[in-house]
């Protein structure tokens, strides 16, 4: 029987994060994608307009294109009269306006040659093929001129920005067919544990445990925009775990193992990592609560994170250790999660030297937010997350937080 092992030492969260960033560096992979598929991606180079927007002088309203000087004295009692020459629609070839003529024109259509203004339809009336213009319009009235929105060569979105849907509209409008973006990192994920049951379509067998943590981590990776290599479940077998880790290191930019990283005799991941790569974990055990058994190592330039099997512990380990690196690789400063200030409803004791991830519910009272710590504890209690409105990260230099003290809360859901 294998002996239970202890952690050699616990590393402070800030030191762990520093090591990860120093060892992993930046992620320089780029790829070209079509503009219509680029939403949510991070630009690897400035995006410049290929053409003017609009690409020609066009009507901003439905009405009639005319020579503005011929409407100089027009009024409701003395309308200017124009002969209707034709119709200009968006996408159709433009015509030419001669003296005394006009074109019916629709929003977005190119201004016919010779025209320099558009009279709105409600300021006109029609008698046969004649258009009576009842008000004077200045030159340029109701015209969107070529390039007034975006100029050819103009930088529309800067390198490092995340493309949003409205950016995509600007790219396509200015004839940018494709863009260089940061390549999405691929992350291999594996659960370890002979007790795990992978079949989500059947009732979990007696004595076994549903593999709920792996789908959660995969969902979090996809939410960040990563490509996932799902390696499923491997039982508590050193050779099988080692083989799977070795395979994933060759396939992915990062590897995450779930479970098998604590102190038990069947917690084989650290040893399997060494067997697969010839390297030891750089650290194993972090001063965070929950999430203490998390670890980190490098294999041929590929980072490997060992997360605990309990859902909440794995979630905290992911957010504290894995997510900051992925955000750096993706070129994003932080995960887009709303943050608020809230006052604690009661005192919370803190273990000195340990960074606590406090799950709270949020209530509003007299225009202020009140954070209520969730009483249930334990890294395996997933209800502490499903019931939580947010998470407060409490630094390791505190011994407690008093009732009424203000803390920052990262919201997990919309609260109002």
From TrEMBL:
<dbReference type="InterPro" id="IPR001453">
    <property type="entry name" value="MoaB/Mog_dom"/>
</dbReference>
<dbReference type="Pfam" id="PF03454">
    <property type="entry name" value="MoeA_C"/>
</dbReference>
<dbReference type="GO" id="GO:0005737">
    <property type="term" value="C:cytoplasm"/>
</dbReference>
<keyword id="KW-0808">Transferase</keyword>
<protein>
    <submittedName>
        <fullName>Molybdopterin molybdenumtransferase MoeA</fullName>
    </submittedName>
</protein>
<dbReference type="InterPro" id="IPR005111">
    <property type="entry name" value="MoeA_C_domain_IV"/>
</dbReference>
<dbReference type="InterPro" id="IPR005110">
    <property type="entry name" value="MoeA_linker/N"/>
</dbReference>
<dbReference type="GO" id="GO:0061599">
    <property type="term" value="F:molybdopterin molybdotransferase activity"/>
</dbReference>
<dbReference type="InterPro" id="IPR036425">
    <property type="entry name" value="MoaB/Mog-like_dom_sf"/>
</dbReference>
<dbReference type="InterPro" id="IPR036135">
    <property type="entry name" value="MoeA_linker/N_sf"/>
</dbReference>
<dbReference type="Pfam" id="PF00994">
    <property type="entry name" value="MoCF_biosynth"/>
</dbReference>
<keyword id="KW-0501">Molybdenum cofactor biosynthesis</keyword>
<dbReference type="GO" id="GO:0006777">
    <property type="term" value="P:Mo-molybdopterin cofactor biosynthetic process"/>
</dbReference>
<dbReference type="InterPro" id="IPR038987">
    <property type="entry name" value="MoeA-like"/>
</dbReference>
<feature type="domain" description="MoaB/Mog">
    <location>
        <begin position="188"/>
        <end position="328"/>
    </location>
</feature>
<dbReference type="InterPro" id="IPR036688">
    <property type="entry name" value="MoeA_C_domain_IV_sf"/>
</dbReference>
<comment type="pathway">
    <text>Cofactor biosynthesis; molybdopterin biosynthesis.</text>
</comment>
<dbReference type="Pfam" id="PF03453">
    <property type="entry name" value="MoeA_N"/>
</dbReference>
């Amino acid at each position: 029987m294998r002996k239970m092992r202890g952690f050699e030492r616990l590393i402070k969260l800030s030191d762990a994060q520093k090591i990860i960033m120093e060892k992993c560096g930046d992620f320089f992979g780029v790829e070209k994608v079509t503009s219509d598929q680029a939403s949510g991606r991070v630009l690897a180079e400035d995006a410049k307009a290929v053409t003017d927007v609009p690409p020609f002088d066009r009507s901003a309203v439905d009405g009639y294109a005319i020579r503005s000087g011929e409407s100089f004295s027009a009024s409701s009692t003395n309308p200017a009269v124009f002969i209707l020459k034709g119709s200009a629609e968006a996408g159709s070839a433009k015509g030419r306006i001669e003296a005394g003529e006009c074109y019916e024109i629709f929003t977005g259509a190119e201004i016919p040659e010779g025209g320099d203004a558009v009279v709105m339809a409600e300021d006109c009336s029609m008698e046969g093929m004649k258009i009576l213009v009842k008000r004077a319009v200045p030159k340029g009235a109701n015209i969107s001129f070529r390039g007034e929105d975006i100029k050819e060569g103009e930088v529309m979105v800067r390198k490092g920005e995340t493309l949003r849907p409205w950016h995509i509209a600007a790219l396509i409008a200015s004839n940018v067919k494709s863009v260089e973006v940061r390549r999405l990192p691929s992350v291999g994920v594996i659960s370890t544990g002979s007790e795990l049951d992978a079949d989500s379509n059947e009732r979990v067998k007696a004595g076994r445990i549903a593999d709920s943590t792996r789908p959660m981590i995969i969902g979090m990776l996809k939410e960040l925009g990563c490509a996932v290599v799902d390696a499923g479940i491997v039982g508590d077998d050193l050779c099988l775990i080692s083989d799977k880790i070795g395979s994933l290191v060759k396939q992915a930019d990062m590897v995450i193992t779930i479970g098998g990283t604590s102190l038990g005799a069947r917690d084989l991941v650290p040893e399997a990592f060494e067997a697969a790569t010839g390297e030891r974990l750089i650290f194993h055990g972090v001063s965070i609560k929950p999430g203490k058994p998390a670890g980190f190592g490098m294999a041929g330039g590929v980072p490997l994170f060992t997360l605990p099997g309990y859902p909440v512990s794995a979630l905290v380990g992911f957010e504290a250790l894995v997510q900051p690196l992925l955000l750096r690789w993706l070129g994003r400063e932080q995960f887009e999660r709303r943050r608020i200030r809230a006052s604690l409803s009661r005192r919370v004791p803190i273990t000195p030297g340990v960074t606590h991830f406090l799950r709270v519910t949020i209530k509003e009272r007299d225009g202020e937010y009140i954070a209520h710590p969730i009483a249930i504890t334990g890294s395996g209690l997933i209800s502490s997350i499903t019931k939580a409105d947010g998470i407060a990260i409490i630094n390791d230099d505190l011994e407690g937080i008093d009732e009424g003290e203000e803390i920052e809360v990262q919201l997990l859901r919309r609260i109002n």
